[in-house]
Amino acid sequence: MKTETVTVNLNKRSYDIVIGPKLINKATKIIASHLPSTRLAIVTDANVSAIYLPTFQESLAEYDIGIIPVVVDAGEKSKSFPVLETVIDSILAAKLERGDTIIALGGGVIGDLTGFAAGIVRRGIGFIQIPTSLLAQVDSSVGGKTGINTTHGKNLVGVFYQPKLVIADTAVLDTLPLREFRAGYAEIVKYGLIDQPGFFRWLEKNWRTVFSGGAERVEAIACSCRFKAAVVERDEHEAGERALLNLGHTFGHALETATGYDAERLIHGEGVAIGMVLAHEFSVRLNLASSDLVERIRRHLHTAGLPTQITHIPGSLPDADTLMTYIAQDKKVTSGALTFILTRGLGQAFIAKDVPQAEVRAFLLEKLSRHIDCRR
Amino acid sequence: MKTETVTVNLNKRSYDIVIGPKLINKATKIIASHLPSTRLAIVTDANVSAIYLPTFQESLAEYDIGIIPVVVDAGEKSKSFPVLETVIDSILAAKLERGDTIIALGGGVIGDLTGFAAGIVRRGIGFIQIPTSLLAQVDSSVGGKTGINTTHGKNLVGVFYQPKLVIADTAVLDTLPLREFRAGYAEIVKYGLIDQPGFFRWLEKNWRTVFSGGAERVEAIACSCRFKAAVVERDEHEAGERALLNLGHTFGHALETATGYDAERLIHGEGVAIGMVLAHEFSVRLNLASSDLVERIRRHLHTAGLPTQITHIPGSLPDADTLMTYIAQDKKVTSGALTFILTRGLGQAFIAKDVPQAEVRAFLLEKLSRHIDCRR
What we know:
Two copies of one chain form a homodimer.
Chain A: E1 4-8, E2 15-20, H1 23-34, E3 40-45, H2 46-61, E4 68-72, H3 81-93, E5 101-106, H4 108-120, E6 126-131, H5 134-140, E7 148-150, E8 153-157, E9 165-169, H6 178-195, H7 197-212, H8 215-234, H9 249-258, H10 268-285, H11 291-303, H12 320-329, E10 338-343, E11 349-355, H13 357-369
Parallel strand pairs in A: 2-9, 3-4, 3-5, 5-6, 6-9
Antiparallel strand pairs in A: 1-2, 7-8, 10-11
């Protein structure tokens, strides 16, 4: 099967994303050809390291490349100051210098944490990403957003830091739980909804082979990276247009906060799926788009097995006013005004500033009134 | 007295350094005219806040600008992960957004710590520096190096992050202990020795008025900022030429490590003064420069009250091999080879890569044999 390469053009910080099946087995060869130095640290989590680390170490040994493994706990809790400090301490103890390289092998948590560490150790050290989840391959592999969480919210501390190379092994995704694959798929759909109506139509036809792992999977991931790269290239530091990538995320983040980031109830991509439907419904309410559009999007996400409305979240949710607080806390707030990504049609998303809080609240009240908590 | 403005040209990240006496009293007016927003945090230390914070708060109130004070302990120990986390927590608790501003009011420690916090909170938030030490005004105010220390060494974790504005009040320096003023002066001399022989000659003539606070002080600080800016503009991220600014620092840092960063024995600028003399002596030893040059530099630094040789450091020092370990640990090491800033004459410094370790060791042995520990 063909390997696709997407180049993210950011002048001196440009890099390639190599996408294809079984790349992890060839990764050492790709890395060896990219590496200017011989000192290498690899940050991964306990789950991923058990599956891939030994093979990885063995094949690097063939190239006489030593490796310093740094294994952290799996899960969102590792995106914290204490774990960041531990990772940095391991890197410094191994005496890595600016020209050396840190590899992130794992999902979004590992990528965000490792990228942040790489960005601040000695004010920036080489960084290669090997994302092992669909979400990480289509989202965090492009654009250099790195960071950790604090008690005040998610991703509130971090840097923009671009990797030197991303290796996305599409076969690794076969071992993902279906629910996680679906959640990553929501981000793929998002690119269609932002400004690629043709891609959305293609997904409506081809989503099954994206899921089953055909050439269409490589294609869908490559297209997603390409679309995201185009936005990031025009606005690396999110001064404007890049905010479009937050389609579905303002509502989605509020729902994640509302469920206390309980992965049994809601995971990020599911929040984004519901959030995208809400963003489209809210656009209809503001007379910006037609209700047919909402139905079409809801149908596709539902067919792919994703939740599409607040009522699909198990357990009780806070009231509209509490959700409004979470929305206002979201970092996409500019000087107190609410900024939303809304749409005028299929693949016609835009940044709406100064959205009236009262409208959002009324809309949420309506959505929540239909929410029946089956566990009560 | 005239106020000087030095512009650091870094495209979108360009900023002004305003230099002159009594600027702290006018700072609020300058800030108010620069500020796009109204939320403002000010990070300072216990010593500085006692002198300047109340006045500062009062005069900002005139412009209806609220202020969130964040006061940390004075001293190098605040450049640590725990203090960084505290500062970030205060900023996030105050709900500062990307368009808001954090002011660093203090010396190098406050500037480095606050700049790092500003660079990583929400992946970058506005930052204004009001340096209150001579060292901070002529060194850390230009170039955006920020960071904290770890058990592995100084400044090993940080980012390059440029302020939006620097306000250097030259009258504030009258309250500095003489020893600290002298240490800052060593960095001023450094610019002459790197590539400004004319400036060095000017300093030989005018250093007394720089110390006493005449227009020459403003001039010397403005020149230093201008010289450093020129280097930084050509090499913002220290890929090459910027390393010249480390003249005297490789030896200097090793001596600081050797004295355990005990400020009673040696402070940074003093280490740099001795380090600059050593770098020139070492250049003579390698037949790169004449011994007259060493004498001239030693004389000027000595006249200005600075230590100029290892024997001037009180207390016992480790042996040459231990010092060699400290030198190799210094972050200016590239793939194991020793890089030094050496010189071919007055103001003719250059980056020497692959300096033989044996030569450095022999040189240090010689220097240390003359070191008599008076406290033994």
